[in-house]
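Here's what a typical entry looks like (BLUF domain-containing protein):
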Amino acid sequence: MSLNLQRIAYYSLASQPEAALIMLAEILGVSDRNNVRDSLTGALLVSRGRFFQVLEGAAQDLDRTLARIAADPRHHSLNVVLRVDVNRRMFGQWGMVAARIAPSQQPEIDAIIDRCHDDPAAAIKAARDLLEHQIAA
Ligand SMILES: Cc1cc2nc3c(=O)[nH]c(=O)nc-3n(C[C@H](O)[C@H](O)[C@H](O)COP(=O)(O)O)c2cc1C
């Protein structure tokens, strides 16, 4: 099952930044269904029209899903910032989870997305910590 397990992360820009939050609800519904089917786990953060998504699973499932995502006109300028082989999942409990945008969390989400180019591993860990606190709260 864990054969070929990889983690990828990408950054992209919403085509309609003002609608990014509304789109998030639609995206999550479809993603959750597909990702559970494909044994993918991960998280999606959005802030100020910027997306940052982490996905984990078998390499071939990641490739297929990433190809669909990259062709989605709701965003552009997709840039994969990390792709690594891993032994275990960091987002194992979530088919797809999103940071809810409480105004108080906006700076934290912004900071994670700012960081994803220079230090993607740290950004991914910060995203996981943020989501764990959010779910626990
Ligand atoms: C920022 C962003 C993230 C997305 N993440 C996922 C995802 O994790 N899994 C997924 O199946 N689709 C995701 N999508 C949606 C895909 O682009 C595509 O619309 C969907 O996979 C089509 O699914 P369907 O063929 O079952 O209708 C995402 C789209 C955007 C814009």
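DSSP finds four helices and five strands in the chain.

More examples are in the samples folder.
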